[in-house]
Specification:
Elements (H helix, E strand, L loop, with lengths): L4 E3 L8 E3 L2 E3 L12 E3 L21 E11 L6 H4 L6 E9 L3 E3 L12 E9 L6 E3 L17 E5 L7 E3 L2 E4 L1 H4 L2 E8 L3 E8 L7 E12 L2 E5 L4 E6 L3 E11 L6 E6 L4 E2 L6 E13 L2 E15 H4 L6 E2 L3 E9 L6 E8 L11
Amino acid sequence: MFNRVTFIIAAVSLTLLGAGCAKTYDPAPEQDSEIRFGAGSMLLNNDYASKADNDYYDNTSFGVFAFKQIGGTWEQLATKNWKPDYMFNQEVVHSLGSAYTYSPTRYWPDPSESSLSFWAYSPYDENAGLLVSGSTSTTYTSTSVGLPDMRFTADGHTDLLYSNVVADQTFASNSGVVDLAFNHALSLVDVKAEKLDEGGLYTVTLEEVSFRGIFATAILGSSDWTWGNYGGSRQDLPVWDGNTVLAHGTATPLAGVMPIPQDLSNDACRLHVAFRVSYYEDPLDDSTLVEYSTTRDVYLRDVFNWVGSVWERNKHYTVTIRISPDRPILFTVSWSEWGAEHNYQLSS
């Protein structure tokens, strides 16, 4: 079961733009029937390391879809063919000082005629890779039936979230406010490193860490929210690039990345580590420094063996690398549900 993040969207105005025309729905005179969105917390587009708490909500956005249901419920989708023609990929944005906004305004339909069901994803993309469910090429439009599949290319630093369907809503059922609960579609992998002590007579300077042979593009299927149809060539996913002197006994946090969940059993999937070792030829004489660089490549199926040699959706992994000059690199991997306390997006 997914951990849920609820988003507050104090939205104001909406009009449906579709088929080249715009139509405004006037509110019923006896009520303010503007569609609004509400929630408890919104942690999107957060910088992993440097953003202050009060910046967390700035410029976050997601795309909303609303399905108008005439004489039926969301569960009758197969027979009623509900389409996202009431709201289609409508961007909702939060800016500091102005809460959530969207435009143009959309209003609740007459509840005696129809209800609405809502679905959303984040971050918003005007050209999101939306596909008809079960297809690898047919574009999802406002006349398509049901939820879309999503073709996504991960950059390692941007999360992808999708909401639960909020079904069969009317103004009366929620006082005009729709709550959306989002789920993580990717994995989160944090990496740390430390030096294995051998009398403290050498220095390890970490130069590079990366995951190699990783698929960056795949399709998230809306039927059961699993990934498939991995495409493109396998790629390198950089984790760390810099000169960091490692301490003994304290693991240095390097970075976190968010890859597409996938099987890691292929020989191409490797953890690449480059580091430099320095020591004095004579421990009592600092005139002769010996220094050399080396690299190690380890199969990811071995690193993540204890978790089935896979990255799973909505899982948070922490890999700790321990390095010495003359012994194999040692690894520790821990994992957990991503969880509400980790609902951040890494941004470059």
